[in-house]
Design goal:
Order of helices and strands: EHEHEHEHEHEEEHHHEE
Strand order of the largest sheet: 2-1-3-4-5
Structural class: alpha/beta
Strand content: 15-25%
Mean pLDDT: 81
Number of strands: 10
Oligomer: single chain
Length: 228
């Protein structure tokens, strides 16, 4: 189980390496954004811990390029900038989670384990909005009617949650706590950001509005009229 840490601060990088190795993970450390990007693209990692401010290439650019190359390894972004704009920007370019420095190692491990577990656990998809969806859990690829799209682990987890009860409205708080945990800042609009990304992917891939907004309540998956 390999975790890639891209962090230029020697003290933080050493702490993460020692702690993660103590939890049984194989840890690779890159102290530069360009080197980190190369390691992310050329090696199999179960998770990437990515600092924002890096020499060589900014963390946002690294994340953006990783996703652009079709790599959907879970990414936890570290930032010393505690502004909502920076966090939202990180999520928009493809990060699955973020932690503000300073953070506790216990909180980091809870998120590391959750994202790795989420990346491994997939259940067969049911029929959604009249489409027979099939997926490749290793590649996180959803297929229907000869078309396919790839989702990040977080995007897939949200779709799986909505698909558990097609037609049921899930409030933002329920989605946030189920996917990111109760420690996630309740004022963040992370749910809206990810729903928007997921909706655009699904509509571009399958041409139908599978995720519906229920004003003032939350989101739901469009229910097949033939389903009960």
């Amino acid at each position: 189980m390999t975790v890639l840490v891209i962090e230029d601060d020697e003290g933080v990088a050493s702490m993460l390496k020692r702690g993660l190795e103590g939890e049984g993970y194989d840890v690779k450390v890159a102290r530069d954004g360009i080197i980190g990007l190369a390691s992310a693209l050329n090696h199999d990692n179960e998770l990437i811990i990515l600092d924002l401010k890096l020499p060589g290439a900014h963390g946002l650019d690294v994340c953006r390029e990783v996703r652009a190359r079709g790599n959907f390894t879970p990414i936890i972004m570290l930032t010393a900038l505690d502004t909502m704009e920076d966090k939202v920007e990180g999520l928009k370019v493809g990060a699955d989670d973020y932690l503000s420095k300073p953070f506790s190692f216990e909180e980091l491990m809870a998120r590391v384990n959750a994202h790795i577990r989420r990346g491994r656990e997939f259940k067969p998809m049911r029929r959604i909005a009249g489409s027979e969806l099939r997926f490749d859990p290793e590649l996180r690829r959803i297929e229907s009617g000869g078309k396919s799209i790839e989702l990040t682990p977080t995007e897939f987890a949200i779709l799986e949650l909505l698909n558990a009860h097609p037609g049921r409205v899930f409030g933002r708080e329920i989605i946030r706590e189920t996917i990111w945990g109760a420690d996630m800042d309740p004022d963040t609009n992370v749910v809206d950001v990810y729903i928007g990304k997921l909706r655009r992917k699904l509509e571009a891939g399958f041409g139908s509005p599978l995720i519906q907004t229920v004003r003032g309540r939350g989101y739901r998956l469009a229910m097949d009229e033939r389903d009960d």
